[in-house]
Amino acid sequence: MIVAVILFWVAAFMIFWANIGYPISILLIGKIIHRKEKTRAKYEPTVTVMIVAHNEEKVIEEKILNVLNLDYPKNKLSVLVTSDNSDDKTNSIVKKMIKKYPERNITLYEVKERKGKTNAQNEAARIVESEVLVMTDANAMLDKNAARELVKFFTKDVAYVSGRLVYSNSMDSLTSNTENTYWDLETKIRQIESDLQTITAGNGALYAIKTKAYHDFPPIRCHDAAMPLYYSLEGRRAVTNNKAIAYEKAGEKNSDEFKRKVRMSRGVAHYILPSIKILNVFKYKWFTYFYLGHRTSRNLLWFNHILLFVSNAFLVQYSVFYLITFIVQLAIYAIAMLHGVIKTKSKLLTFISYYCMTVLAQFIGVLKTITKKNKPFWEKAESTR
After folding, report:
1. What is the longest distance spanned by two Cα atoms in the chain?
2. Nearest CA-CA partner of 50 in 154, 146, 120, 144
3. Which residues pair with 305 in a beta bridge?
4. What's the pLDDT tens digit per position in 28-48?
């Protein structure tokens, strides 16, 4: 019984810390310690904007025009479309745009074998000659000042700059609204981490690196998680600039959002503690606290929910308290399962369902890792186009 009690309370605390404790702690730290990021306002390096695309015929022309209209010197801005073995009209549309705008530096790189976004980036990055490489998704439309805002944060010790993702359809459905609420809090947390030292994860819709600092990551890894971690462990900084904005649609259906979260969770097991070096608080300072509090605890949610449920089931026979907590857990999971069947506009019930969906996606991601069924590519959600 004693072991079960210990496991119950450890799991309960870890779940609390991941969802409430760490966010509160970091928001309080941000109010106590104020730091302003040093910038290079007049810095105008050569920039290549890489657009990674697989069968993006619906949005690729609009995306290229969006990049061409960025407020940045035309002679210093290049557009590189990396087509990950597209078999629709994506490539022909890009070629049409190249002919239509011969005075602009637009290039199409065709990946012959589809191995996913990271592999496509690895291949195309080898032909980039600009000083800065900006990465962006085909369905993410950039604010006109996005490039300027990203590059001005490249001071001597900064290797990676993340932009801010804004969901353009946050009010269109309860699913997209819930995702937007979560993302707003995440954005605030990352801004404080950035101001204090370095962020622990980036934003795949918009980010930039110094081209010479590019590192080939395994195709199964996403830059969102891999790059900030890699540079931080090297002693360089990964920061965020919320004025560099990308507009994108969140999944409007639970099924779309669930698939996206399963894909995002393919590296959960790896990123629980990807390097023992992270524990060296004397060397990595704030980063150790950020990573363990933000990433490790969150990536363990699936495990701690299982641990909480199993230990609670064992303890039911010993106390009314544990009986009540077990009933509460059953009720929460029942609500999550029934939410997809019962039409409701309740934000509370939607939040409960969304949270459980996120934890389940983590668990499936871990299972796919264990069974070696994770793939480096995925099918896009049409509701985000």
Report:
1. 77
2. 120
3. none
4. 999 999 887 778 878 999 999
Domain boundaries, the chain: 1-34+271-374, 47-252
Residue 208 CA, chain-centre distance (Å), reads 14
Rounded CA-CA distance 260/6 in Å is 34
Per the DSSP assignment, residues forming a β-bridge with 237 are: 158
114 half-sphere exposure, CB direction, 13 A CA radius: 13
CB atoms within 10 A of CB 126: 9
Provide the strand spans (E) within the chain: 47-53, 77-84, 105-111, 132-137, 141-142, 158-167, 206-210, 237-248
CA gyration radius, the chain: 22
Contact assessment for residue 134 and residue 49, using Cβ atoms and an 8 Å cutoff: yes
Structure tokens at 33: 């310690």
The residues pairing with 111 across neighbouring beta strands, listed in sequence order, are: 84
pLDDT in tens, 201-230: 999 999 999 999 999 999 989 999 999 999
Burial 328-345 (b: 16+ CB within 10 A, else e): eeeeebebbeebeeeeee
C-alpha dihedral (212, 149, 225, 293), degrees to nearest 10: 130
- CA-to-CA distance for 243 and 192, rounded, in angstroms? 15
8 A C-beta contact, residue 206 and residue 140: yes
Q: Looking at residue 256, what is its pLDDT?
A: 67
Where does 47-252 sit in CATH, by number?
3.90.550.10
What is the structure's pLDDT at 171?
47
How far, CA to CA in Å, does 317 sit from each of 8, 38, 81, 321, 332? 14, 59, 61, 10, 21
pLDDT < 70: residue spans in the chain? 169-180, 250-256, 340, 343-344, 376-385
Cβ pair 311, 11 in contact under 8 A: yes
Q: Which two tokens stand for residue 326?
A: 């077990």
